[in-house]
Amino acid sequence: MTLETVLLAVGPGDADRSTKLAETVVEVAKPADATVVLGHVFTDSEYDEVLSQLEFDTELEGVDPDEVATRHSTIRELRDVLDEHEIEYETRGAVGDHGPTIVELATEEDADRVVVGGRRRSPTGKAVFGSTAQEVLLSAPCPVTFVRNDEDDEA
After folding, report:
1. Which of the four pLDDT bands, split at 50, 70 and 90, describes residue 121?
2. Which end of the chain lies in a sparser environment, N or C, as judged by fewer CB atoms within 10 Å?
């Protein structure tokens, strides 16, 4: 299978693991010369909060989620790493429930791989990755790379 498009799906909770996500997507995309789609998914309430934080004029009709994603700090950090490694990318923003919306983005972008992040779970929670990661792992139209945040191990 040829790797042409890699979707790196992030949300508001991924700021603390953006470095690890960036390293992983470089490892996956660079050898294949694949294009990375930086997909930032917001729930309705997260989107409203980000519009306010980034001082978008919400009186304007139809603020474009792609533009909101482009201005988000996590996406800017990821773009810096991709630029440094000369990896082509595009940015997509989407509003909806995280899991299904990531799967939808992967399908729309015809992704060959999806990269998502998650956090370490309690012993009870280890059996289940988490609702977003689980939804993506089970429903994505392509292989999924799950990047666990091990920062919690050091706490």
Report:
1. low
2. C
